[in-house]
Write a sequence for this structure.
Protein backbone atom coordinates (compact mmCIF):
# COMPACT_ATOMS: atom_id res chain seq x y z
CA UNK A 1 0.00 0.00 0.00
CA UNK A 2 1.34 3.41 -0.99
CA UNK A 3 1.99 6.07 1.72
CA UNK A 4 -0.79 8.27 0.38
CA UNK A 5 -3.21 5.32 0.65
CA UNK A 6 -2.22 4.85 4.28
CA UNK A 7 -2.87 8.52 4.97
CA UNK A 8 -6.26 8.37 3.25
CA UNK A 9 -7.22 5.26 5.24
CA UNK A 10 -6.16 6.91 8.49
CA UNK A 11 -8.18 10.02 7.69
CA UNK A 12 -11.23 7.94 6.80
CA UNK A 13 -11.08 5.95 10.05
CA UNK A 14 -10.48 9.12 12.05
CA UNK A 15 -13.47 10.81 10.45
CA UNK A 16 -15.65 7.79 11.12
CA UNK A 17 -14.65 7.68 14.79
CA UNK A 18 -15.21 11.44 15.11
CA UNK A 19 -18.66 11.21 13.54
CA UNK A 20 -19.69 8.41 15.89
CA UNK A 21 -18.33 10.29 18.89
CA UNK A 22 -20.15 13.50 17.93
CA UNK A 23 -23.46 11.70 17.44
CA UNK A 24 -23.13 9.92 20.81
CA UNK A 25 -22.21 13.16 22.60
CA UNK A 26 -25.09 14.95 20.89
CA UNK A 27 -27.60 12.29 21.96
CA UNK A 28 -26.27 12.28 25.53
CA UNK A 29 -26.47 16.07 25.75
CA UNK A 30 -30.00 16.05 24.38
CA UNK A 31 -31.09 13.60 27.07
CA UNK A 32 -29.60 15.79 29.79
CA UNK A 33 -31.18 19.00 28.44
CA UNK A 34 -34.59 17.43 27.99
CA UNK A 35 -34.43 15.99 31.50
CA UNK A 36 -33.61 19.44 32.86
CA UNK A 37 -36.51 21.00 30.94
CA UNK A 38 -38.83 18.33 32.31
CA UNK A 39 -37.82 19.21 35.87
CA UNK A 40 -38.78 22.85 35.47
CA UNK A 41 -41.84 23.93 37.49
CA UNK A 42 -44.60 26.21 36.29
CA UNK A 43 -47.18 26.52 33.52
CA UNK A 44 -44.53 26.90 30.80
CA UNK A 45 -42.85 23.55 31.42
CA UNK A 46 -44.52 21.83 28.44
CA UNK A 47 -43.57 24.71 26.17
CA UNK A 48 -39.95 24.54 27.35
CA UNK A 49 -39.89 20.80 26.73
CA UNK A 50 -41.24 21.25 23.19
CA UNK A 51 -38.76 24.01 22.38
CA UNK A 52 -35.87 22.00 23.75
CA UNK A 53 -36.93 18.92 21.80
CA UNK A 54 -37.24 20.91 18.54
CA UNK A 55 -33.81 22.41 19.05
CA UNK A 56 -32.32 18.98 19.71
CA UNK A 57 -33.99 17.49 16.64
CA UNK A 58 -32.85 20.36 14.44
CA UNK A 59 -29.27 20.01 15.65
CA UNK A 60 -29.27 16.25 15.10
CA UNK A 61 -30.89 16.64 11.68
CA UNK A 62 -28.24 19.13 10.58
CA UNK A 63 -25.42 16.83 11.70
CA UNK A 64 -26.92 13.74 10.05
CA UNK A 65 -27.53 15.41 6.68
CA UNK A 66 -23.83 16.28 6.39
CA UNK A 67 -22.71 12.67 6.72
CA UNK A 68 -21.97 9.99 4.14
CA UNK A 69 -24.44 7.12 3.85
CA UNK A 70 -21.79 4.51 4.69
CA UNK A 71 -20.77 6.43 7.82
CA UNK A 72 -24.39 6.66 8.92
CA UNK A 73 -24.85 2.93 8.40
CA UNK A 74 -21.84 2.26 10.62
CA UNK A 75 -23.17 4.63 13.29
CA UNK A 76 -26.62 3.01 13.28
CA UNK A 77 -25.00 -0.39 13.81
CA UNK A 78 -23.01 0.97 16.77
CA UNK A 79 -25.94 2.62 18.57
CA UNK A 80 -28.38 1.14 21.07
CA UNK A 81 -31.94 0.66 19.68
CA UNK A 82 -33.46 3.84 21.16
CA UNK A 83 -30.59 6.03 19.94
CA UNK A 84 -30.57 4.24 16.59
CA UNK A 85 -34.21 5.16 16.02
CA UNK A 86 -33.59 8.78 17.06
CA UNK A 87 -30.90 9.12 14.39
CA UNK A 88 -32.83 7.12 11.77
CA UNK A 89 -35.86 9.42 12.05
CA UNK A 90 -33.71 12.42 11.12
CA UNK A 91 -32.15 10.91 8.00
CA UNK A 92 -33.64 12.56 4.87
CA UNK A 93 -35.45 10.17 2.49
CA UNK A 94 -32.88 9.96 -0.33
CA UNK A 95 -30.00 9.54 2.08
CA UNK A 96 -32.04 7.01 4.07
CA UNK A 97 -32.39 4.86 0.95
CA UNK A 98 -28.60 4.74 0.54
CA UNK A 99 -28.12 4.05 4.26
CA UNK A 100 -30.62 1.20 4.04
CA UNK A 101 -28.48 -0.47 1.38
CA UNK A 102 -25.20 0.08 3.25
CA UNK A 103 -26.23 -1.25 6.64
CA UNK A 104 -26.04 -4.89 7.76
CA UNK A 105 -28.90 -7.36 7.32
CA UNK A 106 -29.51 -7.52 11.07
CA UNK A 107 -29.84 -3.75 11.47
CA UNK A 108 -31.87 -3.54 8.26
CA UNK A 109 -34.39 -5.99 9.69
CA UNK A 110 -34.56 -3.89 12.86
CA UNK A 111 -35.26 -0.71 10.88
CA UNK A 112 -37.99 -2.43 8.88
CA UNK A 113 -39.63 -3.69 12.07
CA UNK A 114 -39.51 -0.27 13.77
CA UNK A 115 -40.52 1.93 10.80
CA UNK A 116 -43.98 2.47 9.40
CA UNK A 117 -44.56 0.18 6.43
CA UNK A 118 -45.63 3.04 4.14
CA UNK A 119 -42.41 4.91 4.90
CA UNK A 120 -40.31 1.84 4.17
CA UNK A 121 -42.09 1.34 0.84
CA UNK A 122 -41.57 5.01 -0.06
CA UNK A 123 -37.90 4.70 0.81
CA UNK A 124 -37.45 1.55 -1.28
CA UNK A 125 -39.09 3.20 -4.28
CA UNK A 126 -36.07 5.52 -4.44
CA UNK A 127 -33.65 2.64 -5.01
CA UNK A 128 -32.61 1.46 -8.44
CA UNK A 129 -33.65 -2.16 -9.21
CA UNK A 130 -30.17 -3.56 -8.54
CA UNK A 131 -29.86 -1.99 -5.09
CA UNK A 132 -33.43 -3.07 -4.38
CA UNK A 133 -32.56 -6.63 -5.32
CA UNK A 134 -29.56 -6.48 -2.96
CA UNK A 135 -31.80 -5.83 0.07
CA UNK A 136 -34.90 -7.68 -1.17
CA UNK A 137 -34.34 -10.91 0.76
CA UNK A 138 -34.23 -9.03 4.10
CA UNK A 139 -37.72 -7.54 3.54
CA UNK A 140 -41.00 -9.08 4.73
CA UNK A 141 -43.10 -10.64 1.98
CA UNK A 142 -45.85 -8.03 2.25
CA UNK A 143 -43.37 -5.21 1.69
CA UNK A 144 -41.76 -7.09 -1.20
CA UNK A 145 -45.19 -7.35 -2.86
CA UNK A 146 -46.03 -3.67 -2.32
CA UNK A 147 -42.68 -2.47 -3.66
CA UNK A 148 -42.91 -4.71 -6.73
CA UNK A 149 -46.24 -3.15 -7.65
CA UNK A 150 -44.70 0.34 -7.67
CA UNK A 151 -42.02 -0.58 -10.23
CA UNK A 152 -42.23 0.00 -13.94
CA UNK A 153 -42.19 -3.12 -16.08
CA UNK A 154 -38.52 -2.70 -17.08
CA UNK A 155 -37.46 -2.18 -13.46
CA UNK A 156 -39.54 -5.14 -12.31
CA UNK A 157 -37.90 -7.29 -14.96
CA UNK A 158 -34.42 -6.34 -13.72
CA UNK A 159 -35.44 -7.00 -10.12
CA UNK A 160 -36.92 -10.41 -10.90
CA UNK A 161 -33.90 -11.38 -12.98
CA UNK A 162 -31.47 -10.36 -10.24
CA UNK A 163 -33.21 -12.07 -7.32
CA UNK A 164 -33.27 -15.36 -9.20
CA UNK A 165 -29.53 -15.63 -8.63
CA UNK A 166 -28.16 -17.05 -5.42
CA UNK A 167 -26.90 -14.49 -2.89
CA UNK A 168 -23.38 -15.83 -3.43
CA UNK A 169 -23.48 -15.64 -7.26
CA UNK A 170 -21.93 -12.98 -9.47
CA UNK A 171 -25.37 -12.22 -10.93
CA UNK A 172 -26.55 -11.04 -7.52
CA UNK A 173 -23.87 -8.33 -7.43
CA UNK A 174 -23.56 -7.28 -11.09
CA UNK A 175 -24.81 -4.00 -12.51
CA UNK A 176 -26.61 -3.57 -15.80
CA UNK A 177 -24.91 -0.29 -16.59
CA UNK A 178 -22.00 -0.55 -19.01
CA UNK A 179 -20.68 0.92 -22.24
CA UNK A 180 -20.57 -1.34 -25.28
CA UNK A 181 -19.62 -1.01 -28.93
CA UNK A 182 -20.51 -3.02 -32.01
CA UNK A 183 -17.56 -4.86 -33.52
CA UNK A 184 -18.31 -3.22 -36.89
CA UNK A 185 -17.72 0.28 -35.52
CA UNK A 186 -14.53 2.29 -35.81
CA UNK A 187 -12.80 3.99 -32.89
CA UNK A 188 -14.08 7.32 -34.18
CA UNK A 189 -17.67 6.06 -34.12
CA UNK A 190 -17.27 4.87 -30.52
CA UNK A 191 -15.71 8.16 -29.38
CA UNK A 192 -18.58 10.15 -30.90
CA UNK A 193 -21.10 7.96 -29.05
CA UNK A 194 -19.21 8.42 -25.79
CA UNK A 195 -19.29 12.21 -26.16
CA UNK A 196 -23.01 12.07 -26.93
CA UNK A 197 -23.67 10.15 -23.71
CA UNK A 198 -22.43 13.03 -21.60
CA UNK A 199 -21.50 10.76 -18.67
CA UNK A 200 -20.32 7.22 -18.05
CA UNK A 201 -21.44 4.65 -15.47
CA UNK A 202 -19.30 4.53 -12.31
CA UNK A 203 -16.06 2.47 -12.50
CA UNK A 204 -16.11 2.45 -16.30
CA UNK A 205 -12.56 1.65 -17.41
CA UNK A 206 -13.27 -0.52 -20.49
CA UNK A 207 -15.59 -0.58 -23.50
CA UNK A 208 -17.16 -4.00 -24.11
CA UNK A 209 -17.16 -5.08 -27.77
CA UNK A 210 -20.04 -7.30 -28.93
CA UNK A 211 -21.15 -8.80 -32.23
CA UNK A 212 -24.58 -8.61 -33.84
CA UNK A 213 -25.96 -11.31 -31.53
CA UNK A 214 -24.69 -9.46 -28.46
CA UNK A 215 -21.98 -12.07 -27.87
CA UNK A 216 -18.96 -10.63 -26.09
CA UNK A 217 -15.94 -10.40 -28.42
CA UNK A 218 -13.55 -8.52 -26.17
CA UNK A 219 -12.92 -5.30 -24.31
CA UNK A 220 -10.90 -2.15 -24.89
CA UNK A 221 -9.45 0.12 -22.22
CA UNK A 222 -10.59 3.74 -22.37
CA UNK A 223 -7.04 5.15 -22.50
CA UNK A 224 -6.33 2.92 -25.50
CA UNK A 225 -9.26 4.45 -27.40
CA UNK A 226 -7.92 7.94 -26.93
CA UNK A 227 -4.49 7.29 -28.46
CA UNK A 228 -5.50 5.20 -31.48
CA UNK A 229 -6.31 6.30 -35.03
CA UNK A 230 -10.07 7.07 -35.20
CA UNK A 231 -10.33 5.11 -38.46
CA UNK A 232 -9.14 1.88 -36.81
CA UNK A 233 -11.87 -0.78 -36.40
CA UNK A 234 -12.48 -1.26 -32.69
CA UNK A 235 -12.44 -5.03 -33.06
CA UNK A 236 -8.74 -4.74 -33.96
CA UNK A 237 -7.99 -3.73 -30.37
CA UNK A 238 -9.62 -6.78 -28.76
CA UNK A 239 -6.88 -9.33 -29.41
CA UNK A 240 -5.60 -9.55 -25.83
CA UNK A 241 -7.03 -12.03 -23.35
CA UNK A 242 -9.52 -10.62 -20.87
CA UNK A 243 -11.28 -11.71 -17.71
CA UNK A 244 -15.03 -12.30 -17.73
CA UNK A 245 -17.47 -14.08 -15.43
CA UNK A 246 -20.66 -16.00 -15.84
CA UNK A 247 -23.64 -14.73 -13.91
CA UNK A 248 -23.96 -18.09 -12.15
CA UNK A 249 -20.31 -18.18 -11.02
CA UNK A 250 -19.54 -17.93 -7.31
CA UNK A 251 -18.79 -14.35 -6.32
CA UNK A 252 -15.83 -15.40 -4.15
CA UNK A 253 -14.04 -16.54 -7.32
CA UNK A 254 -14.54 -13.06 -8.76
CA UNK A 255 -12.99 -11.57 -5.61
CA UNK A 256 -9.83 -13.60 -6.19
CA UNK A 257 -9.69 -12.55 -9.85
CA UNK A 258 -10.16 -8.86 -9.06
CA UNK A 259 -7.37 -9.04 -6.52
CA UNK A 260 -5.05 -11.05 -8.77
CA UNK A 261 -5.45 -8.91 -11.88
CA UNK A 262 -6.11 -5.51 -10.21
CA UNK A 263 -9.45 -5.18 -11.99
CA UNK A 264 -11.77 -2.18 -11.77
CA UNK A 265 -14.63 -3.81 -13.67
CA UNK A 266 -15.25 -6.95 -15.72
CA UNK A 267 -17.98 -8.20 -18.08
CA UNK A 268 -20.57 -10.77 -17.00
CA UNK A 269 -21.99 -13.19 -19.58
CA UNK A 270 -24.66 -15.90 -19.71
CA UNK A 271 -24.19 -19.53 -20.75
CA UNK A 272 -24.14 -18.49 -24.44
CA UNK A 273 -21.45 -15.85 -23.80
CA UNK A 274 -23.91 -13.00 -24.32
CA UNK A 275 -23.18 -9.85 -22.35
CA UNK A 276 -25.68 -9.50 -19.48
CA UNK A 277 -23.94 -7.31 -16.91
CA UNK A 278 -20.81 -5.83 -15.43
CA UNK A 279 -19.11 -6.53 -12.12
CA UNK A 280 -17.42 -3.53 -10.50
CA UNK A 281 -14.83 -3.18 -7.79
CA UNK A 282 -17.29 -1.58 -5.35
CA UNK A 283 -19.54 -4.65 -5.64
CA UNK A 284 -16.53 -6.90 -5.08
CA UNK A 285 -15.76 -4.95 -1.92
CA UNK A 286 -19.30 -5.73 -0.74
CA UNK A 287 -18.68 -9.42 -1.42
CA UNK A 288 -15.43 -9.31 0.55
CA UNK A 289 -17.06 -7.53 3.47
CA UNK A 290 -20.00 -9.94 3.58
CA UNK A 291 -17.72 -12.97 3.32
CA UNK A 292 -15.39 -11.75 6.06
CA UNK A 293 -18.32 -10.99 8.35
CA UNK A 294 -19.94 -14.36 7.70
CA UNK A 295 -16.70 -16.26 8.23
CA UNK A 296 -16.05 -14.47 11.52
CA UNK A 297 -19.55 -15.41 12.72
CA UNK A 298 -19.43 -19.00 11.54
CA UNK A 299 -16.00 -19.62 12.99
CA UNK A 300 -17.65 -19.00 16.36
CA UNK A 301 -20.60 -21.24 15.55
CA UNK A 302 -23.17 -18.49 14.90
CA UNK A 303 -25.78 -19.35 12.28
CA UNK A 304 -26.55 -15.84 10.99
CA UNK A 305 -25.68 -12.16 11.29
CA UNK A 306 -26.63 -10.81 14.70
CA UNK A 307 -27.43 -7.27 15.74
CA UNK A 308 -25.22 -6.40 18.70
CA UNK A 309 -28.26 -4.82 20.38
CA UNK A 310 -30.81 -7.46 19.38
CA UNK A 311 -33.13 -8.92 22.00
CA UNK A 312 -31.57 -11.47 24.31
CA UNK A 313 -34.02 -14.10 23.06
CA UNK A 314 -33.07 -13.73 19.38
CA UNK A 315 -29.37 -13.70 20.26
CA UNK A 316 -29.71 -16.78 22.46
CA UNK A 317 -31.51 -18.75 19.73
CA UNK A 318 -28.81 -17.80 17.21
CA UNK A 319 -26.19 -19.39 19.44
CA UNK A 320 -28.03 -22.56 20.36
CA UNK A 321 -27.09 -24.96 17.51
CA UNK A 322 -23.35 -25.05 18.04
CA UNK A 323 -23.67 -24.60 21.80
CA UNK A 324 -25.62 -27.86 21.73
CA UNK A 325 -22.87 -29.50 19.69
CA UNK A 326 -20.27 -28.10 22.09
CA UNK A 327 -22.19 -29.47 25.07
CA UNK A 328 -22.22 -32.95 23.55
CA UNK A 329 -18.50 -32.86 22.73
CA UNK A 330 -17.67 -31.49 26.20
CA UNK A 331 -19.63 -34.33 27.79
CA UNK A 332 -17.74 -36.85 25.65
CA UNK A 333 -14.42 -35.27 26.67
CA UNK A 334 -15.43 -35.45 30.32
CA UNK A 335 -16.08 -39.17 29.93
CA UNK A 336 -12.56 -39.59 28.56
CA UNK A 337 -11.20 -38.00 31.74
CA UNK A 338 -13.63 -40.05 33.81
CA UNK A 339 -12.03 -43.27 32.57
CA UNK A 340 -8.82 -42.25 34.33
CA UNK A 341 -10.19 -41.13 37.69
CA UNK A 342 -8.13 -43.75 39.45
CA UNK A 343 -4.92 -42.60 37.78
CA UNK A 344 -5.60 -38.95 38.66
CA UNK A 345 -6.41 -39.95 42.22
CA UNK A 346 -3.04 -41.66 42.61
CA UNK A 347 -1.04 -38.79 41.09
CA UNK A 348 -2.59 -35.35 41.63
CA UNK A 349 0.03 -33.67 39.42
CA UNK A 350 -1.76 -35.10 36.37
CA UNK A 351 -4.80 -32.87 37.01
CA UNK A 352 -2.59 -29.78 37.03
CA UNK A 353 -0.61 -30.70 33.90
CA UNK A 354 -3.20 -32.14 31.52
CA UNK A 355 -4.73 -28.73 30.54
CA UNK A 356 -1.29 -27.77 29.16
CA UNK A 357 -1.35 -30.70 26.74
CA UNK A 358 -4.86 -29.86 25.54
CA UNK A 359 -4.17 -26.12 25.28
CA UNK A 360 -1.00 -26.34 23.19
CA UNK A 361 -2.69 -28.86 20.91
CA UNK A 362 -5.69 -26.56 20.41
CA UNK A 363 -3.44 -23.63 19.56
CA UNK A 364 -1.48 -25.65 17.01
CA UNK A 365 -4.68 -26.95 15.42
CA UNK A 366 -6.15 -23.45 15.16
CA UNK A 367 -3.03 -22.18 13.40
CA UNK A 368 -3.13 -25.02 10.89
CA UNK A 369 -6.87 -24.70 10.35
CA UNK A 370 -6.64 -20.93 9.75
CA UNK A 371 -4.07 -21.49 6.99
CA UNK A 372 -6.15 -24.24 5.34
CA UNK A 373 -9.38 -22.20 5.48
CA UNK A 374 -7.63 -19.22 3.91
CA UNK A 375 -6.15 -21.46 1.21
CA UNK A 376 -9.57 -22.92 0.46
CA UNK A 377 -11.02 -19.42 0.19
CA UNK A 378 -8.35 -18.50 -2.39
CA UNK A 379 -8.57 -21.88 -4.22
CA UNK A 380 -4.95 -22.68 -3.41
CA UNK A 381 -5.72 -26.13 -2.01
CA UNK A 382 -6.88 -28.62 -4.62
CA UNK A 383 -7.70 -32.30 -3.90
CA UNK A 384 -4.41 -33.46 -5.44
CA UNK A 385 -2.47 -31.09 -3.17
CA UNK A 386 -4.22 -31.99 0.07
CA UNK A 387 -1.84 -34.87 0.82
CA UNK A 388 1.17 -32.60 0.37
CA UNK A 389 -0.33 -30.03 2.74
CA UNK A 390 -1.08 -32.76 5.28
CA UNK A 391 2.48 -34.12 5.09
CA UNK A 392 3.90 -30.65 5.61
CA UNK A 393 1.70 -29.96 8.63
CA UNK A 394 2.56 -33.37 10.09
CA UNK A 395 6.24 -32.52 9.81
CA UNK A 396 5.65 -29.18 11.51
CA UNK A 397 3.66 -30.94 14.23
CA UNK A 398 6.51 -33.38 14.89
CA UNK A 399 9.15 -30.62 14.98
CA UNK A 400 7.10 -28.38 17.27
CA UNK A 401 6.07 -31.37 19.35
CA UNK A 402 9.67 -32.33 19.98
CA UNK A 403 10.73 -28.76 20.78
CA UNK A 404 7.84 -27.72 22.98
CA UNK A 405 7.35 -31.20 24.41
CA UNK A 406 10.93 -31.13 25.64
CA UNK A 407 10.34 -27.71 27.17
CA UNK A 408 7.18 -28.68 29.07
CA UNK A 409 8.74 -32.02 30.02
CA UNK A 410 11.67 -30.24 31.64
CA UNK A 411 9.17 -27.91 33.32
CA UNK A 412 7.30 -30.88 34.79
CA UNK A 413 10.53 -32.46 36.03
CA UNK A 414 11.64 -29.25 37.71
CA UNK A 415 8.25 -28.76 39.39
CA UNK A 416 7.58 -32.35 40.54
CA UNK A 417 11.11 -33.88 40.51
CA UNK A 418 9.99 -36.97 38.64
CA UNK A 419 11.78 -37.94 35.42
CA UNK A 420 9.13 -40.32 34.09
CA UNK A 421 6.45 -37.65 34.52
CA UNK A 422 8.47 -35.28 32.32
CA UNK A 423 8.92 -38.00 29.67
CA UNK A 424 5.18 -38.74 29.65
CA UNK A 425 4.47 -35.03 29.37
CA UNK A 426 6.82 -34.67 26.42
CA UNK A 427 5.37 -37.69 24.62
CA UNK A 428 1.79 -36.50 25.15
CA UNK A 429 2.56 -33.04 23.78
CA UNK A 430 4.32 -34.52 20.74
CA UNK A 431 1.46 -36.89 19.94
CA UNK A 432 -1.26 -34.29 20.52
CA UNK A 433 0.45 -31.78 18.22
CA UNK A 434 0.49 -34.43 15.51
CA UNK A 435 -3.22 -35.08 16.13
CA UNK A 436 -3.88 -31.31 16.04
CA UNK A 437 -2.07 -30.97 12.71
CA UNK A 438 -4.14 -33.78 11.18
CA UNK A 439 -7.39 -32.33 12.54
CA UNK A 440 -6.46 -28.80 11.46
CA UNK A 441 -6.14 -30.01 7.87
CA UNK A 442 -8.89 -32.61 7.64
CA UNK A 443 -11.73 -30.72 9.40
CA UNK A 444 -11.91 -27.77 6.96
CA UNK A 445 -11.20 -30.03 3.98
CA UNK A 446 -13.98 -32.37 5.08
CA UNK A 447 -16.47 -29.56 5.56
CA UNK A 448 -15.50 -28.06 2.20
CA UNK A 449 -15.83 -31.35 0.33
CA UNK A 450 -19.31 -31.85 1.81
CA UNK A 451 -20.41 -28.46 0.46
CA UNK A 452 -20.33 -26.65 3.81
CA UNK A 453 -18.47 -23.53 4.82
CA UNK A 454 -15.09 -24.83 6.10
CA UNK A 455 -15.15 -22.26 8.92
CA UNK A 456 -18.65 -23.11 10.15
CA UNK A 457 -18.21 -24.64 13.59
CA UNK A 458 -14.75 -25.93 12.75
CA UNK A 459 -13.29 -24.51 15.96
CA UNK A 460 -15.85 -26.48 18.03
CA UNK A 461 -14.87 -29.75 16.34
CA UNK A 462 -11.16 -28.96 16.66
CA UNK A 463 -11.47 -28.18 20.37
CA UNK A 464 -13.26 -31.48 20.95
CA UNK A 465 -10.53 -33.45 19.17
CA UNK A 466 -7.51 -31.71 20.70
CA UNK A 467 -8.99 -31.70 24.21
CA UNK A 468 -10.27 -35.27 24.07
CA UNK A 469 -7.14 -36.71 22.50
CA UNK A 470 -4.87 -34.57 24.69
CA UNK A 471 -6.47 -35.90 27.87
CA UNK A 472 -6.58 -39.46 26.53
CA UNK A 473 -2.94 -39.49 25.43
CA UNK A 474 -1.59 -37.88 28.58
CA UNK A 475 -3.62 -39.92 31.05
CA UNK A 476 -3.22 -43.11 29.03
CA UNK A 477 0.56 -42.78 29.00
CA UNK A 478 0.48 -41.91 32.70
CA UNK A 479 -1.46 -45.12 33.43
CA UNK A 480 1.11 -47.19 31.55
CA UNK A 481 4.32 -45.59 32.84
CA UNK A 482 3.52 -43.84 36.12
CA UNK A 483 0.98 -45.91 38.01
Amino acid sequence: MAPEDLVATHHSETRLAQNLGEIVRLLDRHRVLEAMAHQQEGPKRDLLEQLQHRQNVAELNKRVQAMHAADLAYILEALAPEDRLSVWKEVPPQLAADVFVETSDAVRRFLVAETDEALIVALLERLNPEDLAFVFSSLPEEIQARVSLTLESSERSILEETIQYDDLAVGHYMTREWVEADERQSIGDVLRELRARGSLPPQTDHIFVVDGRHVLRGMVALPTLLVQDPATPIVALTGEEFVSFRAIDEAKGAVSAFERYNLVSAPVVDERNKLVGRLTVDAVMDVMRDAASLQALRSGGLTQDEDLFASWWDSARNRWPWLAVNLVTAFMTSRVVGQFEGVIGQLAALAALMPIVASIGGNTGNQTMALVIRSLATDQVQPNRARRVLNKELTIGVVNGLAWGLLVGVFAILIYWRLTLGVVMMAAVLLNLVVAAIAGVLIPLGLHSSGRDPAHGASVLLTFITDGMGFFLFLGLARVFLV
Summary: Residues 121 and 146 are 7 Å apart (CA to CA). The chain has three domains: 13-173, 180-299, 312-481. Residues 13-173 form a domain with the MgtE N-terminal fold fold (CATH 1.25.60.10).
